[in-house]
Design goal:
By secondary structure, the protein is mainly β. The chain contains two helices and 17 strands. The chain has helices at residues 122-128, 170-177; strands spanning 19-23, 26-30, 36-41, 47-52, 72-79, 85-91, 100-105, 117-120, 140-145, 149-154, 164-169, 188-191, 196-197, 200-201, 203-210, 213-222, 231-240. The protein is globular and about 45 Å long. The two termini are 31 Å apart.
Length: 245
């Protein structure tokens, strides 16, 4: 089975699109080398207002340099235990600078984001690193929220052993990230075997929870480095139901 591109739209003011979440008629987009949360019309992709996630003096060229970018790769919509809806944004954790996240509330029914709350991911990511295969660099590439869990997707380039997900209880994780609890959430992990191209394994690149199913994307990148980019050889999309923990 192959996907066919039926339309191509140029978005010149969007440097990258590492995470996308559609809420109503708005498509929210984050970039791994941009300081903004972008709002697009979900149907036409026409640009709307953008929200500043963090201040930086290094976006003058339209991209934050790789060595200092926050590498915001993960985006998901969810509702907190208090009933507040919003967007959770997470950095990849591949370097110390990339252990930053953000909570963006979406008040009312308009989907208009106005506030941003920084989140430190250092404690959570420190707890995940010992669960990785030996020699593997933490590299969170996607996140999805079910009604009860937060599912984080590790992308390990060049190794099938590193394709795994971390499953965390949603309520406990949010309480920890928002500093309402000092207790680290319990973590479960699951390994997945993904397709290969020319003998090179795919790695997770995106995820979303929809209609009680987990949909994921994966791509094959010709590199052995979690930070340095390589040529993309191909991509896949699929769906599954998470196995009971």
């Amino acid at each position: 089975m192959r996907a066919t591109i039926v339309q191509e739209i140029s978005l010149p003011n969007l440097p990258s699109a590492s995470g996308i979440e559609v809420i109503g008629d708005v498509a929210y987009v984050i970039g791994d080398d941009a300081p903004f949360l972008y709002r697009l019309d979900a149907a036409s992709l026409a640009a709307g207002e953008r929200l500043t996630l963090f201040e930086t003096a290094h976006f003058s060229t339209g991209r934050i340099p790789k060595n200092i970018k926050l590498d915001l790769e993960c985006l998901t919509a969810l509702t907190t235990p208090a009933g507040e809806s919003g967007l959770l944004v997470l950095g990849s954790g591949a370097t110390a600078a990339r252990e930053q996240g953000f909570w963006v509330p979406l008040p009312g029914t308009t989907g208009a984001a106005a506030s941003v709350y920084p989140l430190s991911l250092s404690g959570l990511y420190a707890a995940l690193r010992p669960l990785l295969p030996a020699g593997t660099v933490l590299n969170m590439e996607a996140v999805a929220a079910t009604a009860t869990e937060l599912v984080l997707f590790q992308r390990t380039v060049g190794s099938e052993a590193g394709n795994l997900v971390f499953r965390l209880p949603l309520v406990d994780t949010l309480e920890y990230l928002h500093h309402h609890s000092a207790q680290l959430p319990a973590v479960r992990r699951q390994f997945y075997q993904l397709p290969t191209i020319d003998g090179k394994p795919a790695g997770f690149s995106g995820a979303t929870w929809f209609a009680e199913k987990l949909f994921v994307t994966a791509s094959v990148e010709d590199t052995q480095d979690a930070v340095l980019d390589g040529a993309v050889l191909g991509s896949f999309v699929g769906g599954t139901r998470p196995k009971p923990g």
